[in-house]
Write a sequence for this structure.
């Protein structure tokens, strides 16, 4: 194992909290592989770059010789929330949980080292736990402390209902740490409270308490809100490499540096200095970031291929060679409204979808972004290139002008 | 079964709440024997007159043809409170619970009709309940509503700790009503909240909710605080008949009417009128009350016997015939301090106990209350009668004067 100072530097990098830091040092001093826990919710198995921040940290632990316990919280997932109130989770069937768990693992092993990962399900012990044990578990925590959790405190203050069962989830999560004898638990800053509950419960069970290590929540591609699938600002770990590459190329320069910090082990200060001095073009830096990320989730070869594809399409303004072509059947008497071109050529399933795409700024005609739904496509001898988003592209050819010139 | 109007009059008598009254009427209209639940805590098996108020009401239900479900909450008793904080209950062993349950039954069947009583233990279903079911149970109630319970609200406001498990107990108690399909639950007014939780949980389980019927908390013999063993103002159901009779004779006239109302089916208005018009002496009314209560817990014959004993001892100032006698061995040179007389004759186990009893006003010499610990007992030809409390009595005979007179 590496010297402790070196390990500490790697572990602390990018973290928000290490609670308490001196216990982390003491645990590393023991010189044995530590048990690093990560809890995962099986109800939302699609991981994105926000999750990758935490997974990268775990990978760093593995590279330092430690063991990751990947805990899938299937127990609570299978209970769900029978009250049917807002903010609820529907109970998952055992099959759904298994399917989600498989998806999860497929994704996490794009980052984690499979050899140094123990995958566990908390139904293993929670299914066997009786109500009496549950009551006993509850006795280790007070109501007031539980209601200090940010979201509970807010909802309680605003008199929005908090189901009693919701107070149990942090305890169950914390109890997992007891069973797993976790040395360290890693999570986003939004998980700080829950991870500290684990620490308390370990103490109550006469175990050395886990060190709590939190990492920042990654902003989404909008650069403002936390990355979240529901906010449509997320880049998924399992998304096609082309999409991952393209979306990373679309982020702001400031966000790029943030992503560098949280998703790579590059030296951000050096990058910033190089860009400020003009030695590194931000576009080049962004391509490197996209390459690093795609390489992690796919392969270095794929990353290079995506870079080249991107450069061809969006920078050299070259079109792919195998571009599909839609032949216009009849001579249009005037410019054809763009939504009509899109629906007839199959690039939109309906006029309303076409209009929506145009309004969203997703549509280009001959490389120029069009946001006017009334835009008319003029017939021309040359093919008209219509693009929707980064990947749907089509050449539209008109018979019109040729006919006219023959006539004339 | 009696007509509904008649049943209602009996059931409503002395109650504080009938929630909701119209559902009680509807349930009675069904014409079937109703299931009347009473929950009991096995950690304190000594019942007193305060409990008798509720038990009397149950007995009335039985006399009307309904069924009583006597539920012993052994599950929570066996969990106890492992945090060791104040206001805790120590977990009971299964043996202690069984012993307490036996004591309980012995006592309740002084009032209840055994034929129309079903005794149940909630460990029957709670021991089988899993943690998942517990979480589901919790989902039927919100934290805010639970914290509305008086004692929780007070402790929360005063920032005194409330263990999370304490919030589970009302739910478990309420769930008992679900399992038992209770039609009505009876309890003291301090149980109103818990009984209403049962109602809610039955609704959540698609059952007709129980009617909640609360009865006043009986004041102790001091006439001020709620009757409670720990406040030493309680008359126990299992106390010796002589003591029950004597202590009832010691209460105030006002409290006597309260006890009549809550512990008997006598018409209190009539009694009050008779006393005010001078047709009934309060002392006679009190003796009747004591007779009624003793007759219920023992037998009519015992009650009569206790009445006669009381009259002999405290009213006709007669002494029991079989009064034990202590013969003083040597001639005392002077008056003997009363504590010494008491210890030597075995009426107190030590000088300090004797002094305490005297200071408490529990000791009489020849019928006169003595509260001076320095009081000296003069030798006399006649036996000196020393009484401690109502029941310990002894004659002390001195050889002194006889010897002196022989000498003189």
């Amino acid at each position: 194992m590496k010297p402790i100072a070196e390990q500490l530097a790697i572990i602390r990098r990018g973290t928000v909290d290490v609670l308490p830091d001196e216990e982390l040092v003491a645990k590393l001093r023991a010189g044995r592989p530590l048990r690093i826990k990560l809890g995962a919710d099986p109800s939302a198995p699609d991981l994105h770059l926000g999750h990758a921040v935490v997974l990268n940290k775990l990978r760093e632990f593995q590279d330092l010789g430690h063991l990751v316990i990947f805990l899938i919280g299937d127990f609570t997932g299978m209970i769900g929330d029978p009250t049917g109130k807002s903010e609820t989770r529907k109970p998952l069937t055992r099959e759904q949980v298994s399917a989600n768990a498989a998806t999860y693992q497929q994704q996490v092993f794009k980052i984690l080292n499979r050899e140094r990962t123990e995958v566990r399900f908390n139904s293993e012990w929670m299914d066997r736990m009786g109500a009496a044990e549950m009551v006993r578990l509850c006795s280790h925590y007070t109501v007031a402390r539980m209601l200090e959790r940010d979201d509970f405190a807010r909802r309680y203050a605003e008199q929005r209902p908090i189901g009693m069962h919701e107070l149990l989830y942090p305890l169950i999560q914390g109890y997992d740490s007891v069973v797993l004898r976790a040395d360290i638990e890693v999570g986003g800053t939004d998980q700080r409270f829950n991870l500290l509950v684990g620490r308390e419960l370990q103490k109550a069970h006469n175990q050395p308490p886990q060190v709590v290590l939190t990492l920042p929540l990654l902003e989404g591609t909008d650069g403002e809100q936390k990355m979240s699938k529901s906010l449509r600002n997320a880049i998924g770990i399992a998304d096609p490499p082309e999409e991952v590459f393209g979306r990373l190329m679309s982020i702001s320069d400031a966000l790029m540096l943030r992503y560098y910090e949280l998703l790579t082990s590059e030296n951000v200060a050096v990058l910033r200095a190089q860009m400020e001095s003009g030695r590194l073009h931000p576009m080049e830096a962004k391509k490197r970031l996209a390459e690093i990320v795609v390489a992690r989730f796919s392969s270095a070869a794929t990353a290079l291929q995506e870079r080249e594809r991107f450069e061809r399409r969006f920078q050299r303004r070259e079109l792919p060679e195998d571009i599909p072509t839609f032949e216009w059947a009849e001579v249009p008497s005037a410019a054809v409204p763009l939504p009509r071109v899109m629906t007839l050529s199959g690039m939109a399933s309906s006029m309303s979808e076409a209009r929506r795409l145009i309004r969203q700024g997703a549509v280009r005609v001959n490389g120029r972004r069009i946001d006017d739904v009334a835009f008319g496509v003029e017939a021309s001898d040359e093919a008209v290139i219509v693009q929707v988003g980064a990947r749907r592209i089509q050449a539209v050819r008109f018979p019109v002008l040729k006919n006219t010139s023959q006539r004339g």
Observations:
- Chain B touches chain A through 40 residues (CB under 8 Å).
- Residues 164-180 of chain B form the longest helix (17 residues).
- The mean pLDDT of chain B is 87.
